[in-house]
Predict the structure.
Amino acid sequence: MEEVRREKAAEILLALLSKPRGVRELWQAVGGSPNTVELRVRELQRAGLIQEGESETWPYKKVLSLTDRGRRVAEMLRLQTSLAAPLKKPTEVELKERGKWLLSLLHVLGGNLEGAVRLQKLVFLMKRELGMGVPYQHVPFQHGPFCGEIYEDLMDLESAGWVSVVREVAEPVLVSLTEEGRRVAEEVFHAFPKETREGWEKLKEFNRMPLSQLLEYVYTRYPKESRMLG
Protein backbone atom coordinates (compact mmCIF):
# COMPACT_ATOMS: atom_id res chain seq x y z
CA MET A 1 0.00 0.00 0.00
CA GLU A 2 1.64 3.19 -1.26
CA GLU A 3 0.33 5.46 1.53
CA VAL A 4 1.95 3.34 4.24
CA ARG A 5 5.40 3.58 2.64
CA ARG A 6 5.46 7.38 2.74
CA GLU A 7 7.40 9.37 5.35
CA LYS A 8 5.91 9.13 8.88
CA ALA A 9 2.93 7.03 7.75
CA ALA A 10 4.01 3.86 9.52
CA GLU A 11 4.93 5.81 12.67
CA ILE A 12 1.47 7.40 12.69
CA LEU A 13 -0.31 4.04 12.41
CA LEU A 14 1.83 2.50 15.15
CA ALA A 15 1.26 5.49 17.45
CA LEU A 16 -2.51 5.20 17.00
CA LEU A 17 -2.36 1.47 17.59
CA SER A 18 -1.62 2.07 21.27
CA LYS A 19 -4.44 4.60 21.73
CA PRO A 20 -6.46 7.31 19.93
CA ARG A 21 -4.69 10.67 19.92
CA GLY A 22 -5.30 14.32 19.15
CA VAL A 23 -3.38 15.81 16.24
CA ARG A 24 -0.86 17.63 18.47
CA GLU A 25 -0.31 14.56 20.64
CA LEU A 26 0.19 12.45 17.53
CA TRP A 27 2.78 14.87 16.14
CA GLN A 28 4.64 14.84 19.48
CA ALA A 29 4.64 11.04 19.41
CA VAL A 30 6.00 10.60 15.88
CA GLY A 31 8.13 13.75 15.53
CA GLY A 32 9.11 15.39 12.25
CA SER A 33 7.47 18.28 10.47
CA PRO A 34 3.89 19.14 11.57
CA ASN A 35 3.00 19.74 7.91
CA THR A 36 4.25 16.27 6.96
CA VAL A 37 2.28 14.64 9.76
CA GLU A 38 -0.87 16.55 8.82
CA LEU A 39 -0.49 15.55 5.16
CA ARG A 40 0.07 11.88 6.05
CA VAL A 41 -3.00 11.91 8.29
CA ARG A 42 -5.18 13.20 5.44
CA GLU A 43 -3.78 10.57 3.08
CA LEU A 44 -4.34 7.77 5.58
CA GLN A 45 -7.90 9.00 6.15
CA ARG A 46 -8.59 8.88 2.41
CA ALA A 47 -7.12 5.36 2.35
CA GLY A 48 -9.61 4.29 5.01
CA LEU A 49 -6.96 3.58 7.66
CA ILE A 50 -7.65 6.48 10.04
CA GLN A 51 -10.89 8.04 11.21
CA GLU A 52 -11.64 11.27 13.04
CA GLY A 53 -13.91 11.61 16.06
CA GLU A 54 -14.35 13.85 19.08
CA SER A 55 -13.09 13.35 22.62
CA GLU A 56 -15.83 12.66 25.15
CA THR A 57 -14.56 14.98 27.89
CA TRP A 58 -14.03 18.73 28.09
CA PRO A 59 -12.27 20.41 26.39
CA TYR A 60 -13.78 18.65 23.38
CA LYS A 61 -11.27 18.19 20.59
CA LYS A 62 -10.73 16.16 17.46
CA VAL A 63 -9.29 12.71 18.08
CA LEU A 64 -7.78 10.36 15.51
CA SER A 65 -8.10 6.59 15.74
CA LEU A 66 -7.54 3.59 13.49
CA THR A 67 -10.30 2.03 11.47
CA ASP A 68 -10.72 -1.74 11.54
CA ARG A 69 -8.62 -1.97 8.40
CA GLY A 70 -6.08 0.46 9.79
CA ARG A 71 -5.64 -1.62 12.92
CA ARG A 72 -4.92 -4.74 10.86
CA VAL A 73 -2.31 -2.86 8.82
CA ALA A 74 -0.76 -1.42 11.99
CA GLU A 75 -0.57 -4.86 13.59
CA MET A 76 1.25 -6.15 10.51
CA LEU A 77 3.67 -3.24 10.73
CA ARG A 78 4.33 -3.92 14.40
CA LEU A 79 4.88 -7.60 13.68
CA GLN A 80 7.38 -6.75 10.93
CA THR A 81 9.14 -4.26 13.20
CA SER A 82 9.41 -6.72 16.07
CA LEU A 83 10.80 -9.42 13.79
CA ALA A 84 13.39 -7.07 12.30
CA ALA A 85 14.56 -5.46 15.53
CA PRO A 86 17.06 -7.12 17.87
CA LEU A 87 15.07 -8.33 20.87
CA LYS A 88 16.08 -8.74 24.48
CA LYS A 89 14.77 -12.19 25.21
CA PRO A 90 12.95 -12.33 28.55
CA THR A 91 14.08 -14.90 31.07
CA GLU A 92 11.81 -17.83 31.82
CA VAL A 93 10.92 -16.30 35.19
CA GLU A 94 10.02 -12.96 33.57
CA LEU A 95 8.00 -14.65 30.87
CA LYS A 96 6.03 -16.73 33.39
CA GLU A 97 5.26 -13.63 35.45
CA ARG A 98 4.14 -11.56 32.46
CA GLY A 99 2.41 -14.41 30.67
CA LYS A 100 0.63 -15.96 33.64
CA TRP A 101 -2.64 -14.24 32.80
CA LEU A 102 -2.87 -15.49 29.22
CA LEU A 103 -1.52 -18.92 30.15
CA SER A 104 -4.01 -19.29 33.00
CA LEU A 105 -6.86 -18.14 30.77
CA LEU A 106 -5.99 -20.85 28.24
CA HIS A 107 -5.61 -23.40 31.03
CA VAL A 108 -9.08 -22.65 32.40
CA LEU A 109 -10.60 -22.86 28.91
CA GLY A 110 -9.09 -26.28 28.24
CA GLY A 111 -6.06 -25.15 26.27
CA ASN A 112 -7.70 -23.44 23.28
CA LEU A 113 -9.29 -20.09 22.52
CA GLU A 114 -10.80 -19.05 19.18
CA GLY A 115 -10.93 -15.51 17.85
CA ALA A 116 -9.03 -12.27 18.42
CA VAL A 117 -12.16 -10.36 19.48
CA ARG A 118 -13.13 -13.02 22.03
CA LEU A 119 -9.57 -13.03 23.41
CA GLN A 120 -9.62 -9.27 23.88
CA LYS A 121 -13.02 -9.31 25.63
CA LEU A 122 -12.17 -12.17 27.99
CA VAL A 123 -8.96 -10.48 29.12
CA PHE A 124 -10.89 -7.23 29.59
CA LEU A 125 -13.48 -9.03 31.72
CA MET A 126 -10.74 -10.67 33.80
CA LYS A 127 -9.87 -7.19 34.96
CA ARG A 128 -13.27 -5.52 35.15
CA GLU A 129 -15.53 -8.38 36.28
CA LEU A 130 -13.12 -10.43 38.35
CA GLY A 131 -10.91 -7.63 39.66
CA MET A 132 -7.68 -9.34 38.65
CA GLY A 133 -4.44 -7.37 38.42
CA VAL A 134 -4.14 -7.87 34.68
CA PRO A 135 -1.36 -5.59 33.32
CA TYR A 136 -3.28 -4.57 30.17
CA GLN A 137 -4.79 -1.17 29.46
CA HIS A 138 -7.70 -1.44 27.03
CA VAL A 139 -8.89 1.45 24.87
CA PRO A 140 -12.20 1.80 22.96
CA PHE A 141 -12.05 0.31 19.49
CA GLN A 142 -14.23 -0.96 16.64
CA HIS A 143 -15.19 -4.14 18.50
CA GLY A 144 -15.02 -2.66 21.99
CA PRO A 145 -12.09 -2.68 24.45
CA PHE A 146 -8.75 -3.45 22.78
CA CYS A 147 -5.11 -3.76 23.92
CA GLY A 148 -2.29 -4.38 21.45
CA GLU A 149 0.10 -5.56 24.19
CA ILE A 150 -1.88 -8.80 24.42
CA TYR A 151 -0.67 -9.71 20.93
CA GLU A 152 2.92 -8.82 21.86
CA ASP A 153 2.81 -11.13 24.87
CA LEU A 154 1.33 -13.90 22.74
CA MET A 155 4.33 -13.58 20.43
CA ASP A 156 6.69 -13.99 23.39
CA LEU A 157 4.79 -17.06 24.61
CA GLU A 158 4.85 -18.45 21.09
CA SER A 159 8.62 -17.88 20.83
CA ALA A 160 9.06 -19.78 24.10
CA GLY A 161 7.17 -22.73 22.62
CA TRP A 162 4.34 -22.48 25.14
CA VAL A 163 1.55 -21.55 22.74
CA SER A 164 0.81 -22.02 19.07
CA VAL A 165 -1.02 -19.27 17.21
CA VAL A 166 -2.91 -19.40 13.93
CA ARG A 167 -3.17 -15.88 12.47
CA GLU A 168 -5.06 -14.07 9.77
CA VAL A 169 -3.77 -10.59 8.84
CA ALA A 170 -1.62 -10.55 12.01
CA GLU A 171 -4.59 -11.27 14.31
CA PRO A 172 -4.78 -14.53 16.28
CA VAL A 173 -7.75 -16.64 15.19
CA LEU A 174 -6.79 -19.71 17.23
CA VAL A 175 -4.51 -19.80 20.27
CA SER A 176 -3.57 -23.17 21.80
CA LEU A 177 -1.29 -24.38 24.55
CA THR A 178 1.50 -26.67 23.43
CA GLU A 179 2.37 -29.74 25.48
CA GLU A 180 5.07 -27.80 27.32
CA GLY A 181 2.71 -24.84 27.56
CA ARG A 182 0.11 -26.95 29.35
CA ARG A 183 2.69 -27.83 31.99
CA VAL A 184 3.72 -24.20 32.47
CA ALA A 185 0.11 -22.96 32.42
CA GLU A 186 -0.90 -25.42 35.14
CA GLU A 187 2.08 -24.31 37.22
CA VAL A 188 1.34 -20.57 37.01
CA PHE A 189 -2.40 -21.12 37.47
CA HIS A 190 -1.96 -23.03 40.71
CA ALA A 191 0.42 -20.35 41.98
CA PHE A 192 -2.60 -18.03 42.31
CA PRO A 193 -4.41 -17.99 45.69
CA LYS A 194 -7.37 -20.37 45.95
CA GLU A 195 -9.97 -17.58 45.89
CA THR A 196 -8.42 -16.18 42.71
CA ARG A 197 -8.45 -19.60 41.04
CA GLU A 198 -12.12 -20.02 41.89
CA GLY A 199 -12.89 -16.69 40.25
CA TRP A 200 -11.53 -17.93 36.93
CA GLU A 201 -14.54 -20.25 36.60
CA LYS A 202 -16.67 -17.25 35.68
CA LEU A 203 -14.66 -16.90 32.48
CA LYS A 204 -15.97 -20.26 31.28
CA GLU A 205 -19.48 -18.79 31.31
CA PHE A 206 -18.36 -15.81 29.23
CA ASN A 207 -16.49 -18.07 26.81
CA ARG A 208 -19.58 -20.22 26.27
CA MET A 209 -21.52 -17.18 25.07
CA PRO A 210 -21.90 -16.73 21.30
CA LEU A 211 -19.62 -13.88 20.25
CA SER A 212 -22.58 -11.59 19.51
CA GLN A 213 -23.92 -12.13 23.03
CA LEU A 214 -20.50 -11.56 24.58
CA LEU A 215 -20.09 -8.29 22.68
CA GLU A 216 -23.58 -7.14 23.66
CA TYR A 217 -22.74 -7.86 27.30
CA VAL A 218 -19.52 -5.82 27.16
CA TYR A 219 -21.07 -2.96 25.15
CA THR A 220 -24.04 -2.71 27.51
CA ARG A 221 -22.16 -3.06 30.80
CA TYR A 222 -19.12 -0.99 29.79
CA PRO A 223 -20.36 1.57 27.21
CA LYS A 224 -17.56 4.08 27.86
CA GLU A 225 -14.80 1.53 27.28
CA SER A 226 -16.63 0.22 24.20
CA ARG A 227 -17.33 3.60 22.63
CA MET A 228 -16.24 3.85 19.00
CA LEU A 229 -14.69 7.11 17.92
CA GLY A 230 -15.93 8.63 14.69
